[in-house]
Amino acid sequence: METPENQNVISNFIKSNTAKMIMVGMLTLVLLIPLEFVKNLIAERSQRQEEVITEINDKWGGNVFLYGPILKVPYTYYEETLSINEKTKETVKQRKAYTNYAYFFPEELKAKSNVTTKVLNRNNYESVVFSSKMKFEGNYIHPDFSSKNIVNEDIQWNKATILIQTTNLKSIKDEVKINFGNTNLTFEPVYNSNSKVTTEALETGYIDLGKILNQGKTAFHFDISYNGSQQLKMVPIGKTTQLSMESNWASPSFTGNFLPDDKTKQISANGFVANWKILHINRSFSQQTFNNLPDLSQYAFGVDFVIPVNQYQQNERASKYGFLVIGLTFLIFFLIQSISKIKIHIFQYTMIGLSLIMFYTLLISITEHSSFMKAYIIAGISVITLITLYSISILKNRKFPLFIAASLGSLYTFLYVIIQLENYALLVGSIGLFAILAAVMYFSRKIDWSNGNS
Q: Membrane spanning segments where (predicted)?
């Protein structure tokens, strides 16, 4: 049976700031549940966007990756086998002829690419696509088979072809023709039954290299136009490879194994211009290969045409600070309650917390029909106004609600700045949180936590 003395201890503890802080802290943890539901909603909408982008890109044209032209020359090689004649018991030597292929890369390869981008929309979702016009020119030197001890008589010069390895065949907009040594040739698609090979091939018909190649350099040039999305990359197969790319996309992400020249690179609000120059000593494959054409995708370079931070990424970043916003807002109300002796019921804390969570549902829903900045402003003003008006009825004056409105406005502004920053987000966030902690320590320094007297 409880004594009056024990009842007084329990009653005093319940009325103390410590007990109130424990209840507010527990409520903050409980509000993480609906906040997690909001995060799941953002993730679900983001996943839906990815599905729509994939569908749009599949119809318009996917990533563009190519390398060529590649000179493909067949040659004859021989294998000797030994067998025993059953009747004479003599060893018989047999020599069988087989055909294999040698692949030769250009001595010089120069490419110019003009890329025009645009944003395609479907419902509330958008994807970046592009149209690329690419011009190639360069030259070949006479193929050398001496490293494999292949004699000229075994080289099938009259059955050579020219290859282009690429992806996204379905989005090539025009017929692809090449002028090779003043001979015009047309590329045709080649069926590839090897499911492990990610690229497709364009190949010309037979050409007689014995009549086309000269002892010096044999020039070539061809054009190719693509509809593509997200990425454009090529492989530097020339002994000297140069690429000049110009586009109206203002946020390029240079990707792959090589970066453009910083001295000539230009990026502005109207687009970018970039130039690459790559030598054969910069990559670890030779200018010729025999038997099989290797996978050279690891040496590719180019540009990603993607939206740097999309609306769902920004919403996801904002929701990660939800716990901080709820905790700091409750802390402000708690300090006001402790200093002013105004009683705030746990139900009123709950209503304030749910209002703060509504900010994120408003943000994601408005963002899908407008820009993130406009949605942030509308959602922020709505929530701050709601909490301020509610605070007037709770706190029975206008001084503290105005302080709360100013604090929430500063907090949301601070979080918006952090969301927009990339390189300095951690630094600015750390400094801001340090300032907030210092302010809390200053205003709470005279509070008596045992009985609520300040």
A: 20-38, 321-340, 346-363, 375-394, 400-419, 424-444
CB distance 348 to 60 below 8 Å:
no
Nearest C-alpha neighbor of 241 from the set 287, 209, 203:
287
Cβ contacts of 278-287, under 8 Å, gap ≥ 24: 278/236, 278/238, 278/240, 278/241, 278/242, 279/239, 279/240, 279/241, 280/238, 280/239, 280/240, 282/236, 282/258, 283/236, 283/257, 287/104, 287/105, 287/107, 287/239
CA distance 305 to 229: 7
**Where do the structural domains in the chain lie, given as residue ranges?**
11-50+312-443, 62-308
Question: Can you give the pLDDT at residue 19?
Answer: 67
CA-to-CA separations, 79 to 76, 90, 361, in angstroms, rounded: 10, 20, 73
Check: CB of residue 27 under 8 Å from CB of residue 346.
yes
Residue with tokens 């907009």: 173
d(CA 36, CA 43): 10
Distance CA 413, CA 155 (A): 73
Euclidean distance between CA atoms 8 and 235, whole angstroms: 81
Burial of 420 (C-beta count, 10 Å sphere; 0-12/13-18/19+): middle
Question: What is the per-residue pLDDT across 4-63, written as a single tens digit (0 to 9) for each?
Answer: 555 555 555 455 666 677 787 788 888 888 888 888 888 888 888 778 888 888 888 888
Spatial separation of the C-alpha atoms in residues 231 and 129, rounded to whole Å? 9
Is the model more confident about 444 or about 226? 226
Kindly report the pTM of this predicted structure. 0.70
* Residues above pLDDT 70, as percent of the chain: 88
Tell which wins on pLDDT, 440 or 96. 96
Residue 382 structure tokens: 């709505």
Q: How far apart are CA 19 and CA 31, in angstroms?
A: 19
**Span 313-343, pLDDT tens digits:** 888 888 888 888 888 888 888 887 777 777 8
Pairing state of beta strands 161-166 and 240-247? Answer: unpaired
pLDDT reported for residue 234 = 93
Distance of CA 208 to the CA centre of its chain: 45
Judged on CB neighbours under 10 Å (0-12, 13-18, 19+), 215 is exposed
For range 100-111, the mean pLDDT: 94
Residues 350-368, mean pLDDT to the nearest whole number: 89
Q: Percent helix, strand, coil in the chain (nearest 5)?
A: 45, 30, 25
Q: What is the DSSP string of 103-164?
A: EE--SEEEEEEEEEEEEEEETTEEEEEEEEEEEEEEEEEPP--GGGT--GGGB-GGGBEEEE
Do the bridges between strand 240-247 and strand 217-234 make them parallel or antiparallel, or are there none, so unpaired? unpaired
- Strands 288-290, 183-186: pairing kind: unpaired
